[in-house]
Design goal:
This protein is 31% helix and 22% strand. With 504 residues, it is an alpha/beta fold. The strands form four sheets. A nine-stranded mixed beta sheet has the order 1-11-4-10-9-5-8-7-6, with helices on both faces. A six-stranded mixed beta sheet has the order 16-15-12-13-14-17. Strands 2-3 form a two-stranded antiparallel ribbon. A hairpin with a 2-residue loop joins strand 12 and strand 13 (333-343). The radius of gyration is 28 Å and the shape is elongated.
Length: 504
């Protein structure tokens, strides 16, 4: 591997969380070993080795040093050079740390290929390094269909396809390559192989999983890594977006550079070819590190939601309409959405997200425009969302609650209360199950539905806006629009406006 002066990729990961340490010499020694073997590591590869192999004093014996991170996760798109990180890690584990190493992969031949590359570096190592002097007799052997490297020190490298093959082994360092398909069953078989060792470390290396693996151990490790949990090092090159894949500009070279530290060595024409051949979802996952959305709400089955999607859905002419507005916040990031609920010619409900933008400052003026233009039967808002910061701005714009609650007028506010929310959530879920409405299969709404969290309030399951890790405001705005429509449709007069051209 040769480094290139044309490297344009970002050399530090978007997410680089690792424990505080007291010593970094192990990583430095691994890097020097690579240099002596002719492996020219790029800055990002050195960054991973140095920080993943950092050490702290053992709390149980302060005279001994142990790895600061007991678990390491690495997410980097394909062909960036993560195999060289593994090769150097394995060589250092064998010849510097004298460890028993197990490398697992989705398929045995993939793990075998890495082992044989390690063997080639050992065979071709300079004599002055003395690596070959540490090799046991018959150091490279094939047994039961897989090779094994053994040293006189007792250090060794074993490989296996994941499963029960290593259940009875005791290992110092486990490396799970292609960890996107690592299952709970794999963890049961392999996760306890390091328990008896004094200084173990387990690695998970991969691109993001497909949808089927989104709830697996690798994804759970990612959540812990993002949270900076103790003892976990997590390095992730990705564009890190909540934007639906359909809305991404996949040709943006800035995104290529953020997600691919070897961009520049990986040529533009290569990536452009991948983009032409791949689906948008596959390219986003494999080249940009986009993680699939976790279906975490336990309220809306994915199949049921997709079954009521209709990109061509339109409201009927002259129908009543209700507006819903809500906002979502995570840290300093705030997103707000406005949704419309109306009826179609066939009598089914129509749900559409008409705006989804950062911040909440734009919401009052936008709602005032909608009131003037469409005379909605109600404008539903959630005062417990981040919209509470703009409530005082609504009245000067003519956005007020009804003077007489029994005789609301067009455009009056419908303010969602706690009891209203407890009723609105199951009503919305039931409407999905009963297929009584259609949504326009919009990426931002799908993202909100599949990423929403849920919680119990008494005996009722509701959407948990605070715990949702993706922007949930499109979902909640739609729910509020439906609630406002249902609660007000029979208490205001019929509208005489035309909504046939929709809001889209």
């Amino acid at each position: 591997m040769t480094s290139s002066p044309k490297i344009k990729g970002i050399q530090t990961p978007r997410i680089g969380n690792f424990p505080e340490a007291q010593r970094w010499t192990a990583g430095d020694k691994a890097i020097r070993l690579a240099e002596k073997l002719g492996i020219k590591l790029e800055p990002w590869q050195k960054y991973i080795l140095r920080n993943s192999l950092a050490e702290i004093a053992d709390p149980d014996d302060l005279s001994q040093m142990i790895w600061a991170a007991h678990t390491v996760g690495l997410v980097v798109p394909r062909q960036n050079g993560k195999t060289f990180v593994l090769i150097v890690l394995i060589l250092a584990s064998l010849f510097l740390f004298h460890e028993k190493v197990l490398l697992t992969s989705q398929r045995l031949e993939n793990a075998e290929a890495v082992l044989l590359e390690v063997a080639e570096y050992i065979k071709n190592s300079p004599a002055k390094l003395g690596l070959k002097k540490k090799l046991a007799r018959g150091w490279l052997r094939k047994k039961n269909g897989s090779h094994r490297i053994t040293l006189t020190t007792g250090a060794c490298l074993m490989v296996c396809a994941r499963g029960n093959a290593a259940r009875s082994k005791t290992i110092d360092r486990v490396i799970h390559d292609e960890a996107y398909d690592y299952t709970d069953e794999d963890e049961a078989a392999l996760g306890y192989t390091t328990a008896a060792r004094p200084n173990p470390q387990t690695w998970f290396v991969s691109t993001p999983p497909e949808t089927a693996g989104v709830d697996g151990p690798f994804s759970r490790l990612r959540e812990a890594g993002h949270a900076g949990e103790e003892g976990i090092a997590w390095f992730e090159w990705s564009i890190g977006t909540d934007t639906p894949v359909d809305d991404l500009d996949l040709t943006d070279k800035k995104l290529w550079a953020i997600a691919n530290p070897a961009y520049g060595r990986i040529k533009d024409r290569v990536i452009q070819g991948e983009l032409k051949r791949s689906s948008r979802a596959a390219f986003a996952r494999e080249r940009l590190g986009v993680w699939p959305i976790k279906a975490g709400n336990n309220l809306i089955p994915e199949e049921a939601w997709k079954a009521i999607g209709d990109p061509e859905s339109q409201p009927a002419q002259g129908v009543k309409v209700a507006i819903g507005a809500c906002a979502w916040q995570q840290g300093n990031k705030v997103m707000a959405s406005v949704a419309v609920w109306s009826e179609r010619e066939d009598g089914l409900g129509h749900l559409e997200i008409i705006r989804n933008d950062p911040g909440v400052g734009w919401v009052p003026g936008y709602l005032a425009e909608l009131k003037e233009k469409y005379e909605p039967i109600a404008i539903g808002i959630d005062p417990k969302s981040p919209l509470n910061s703009i409530l005082l701005e609504l009245a000067p714009l003519g956005l007020t609650v009804p003077e007489n609650p029994d005789e609301p007028e067009y455009g009056d506010l419908a303010v969602l209360g706690g009891a209203d929310y407890l009723a609105a959530c199951p009503q919305f879920v039931n409407a999905i199950a009963d297929k009584t409405f259609r949504h326009r299969a919009e990426g931002r709404l799908d993202l909100a539905v599949f990423g929403a969290a849920s919680r119990k309030s008494g005996d009722i399951l509701v959407f948990d806006r605070a715990r949702s890790k993706t922007d949930s405001s499109p979902l909640t705005a739609g729910l509020i629009a439906r609630w406002a429509y249902v609660t007000r449709k029979d208490s205001v007069g019929s509208g005489d406006y035309d909504l046939s051209d929709s809001f889209g």
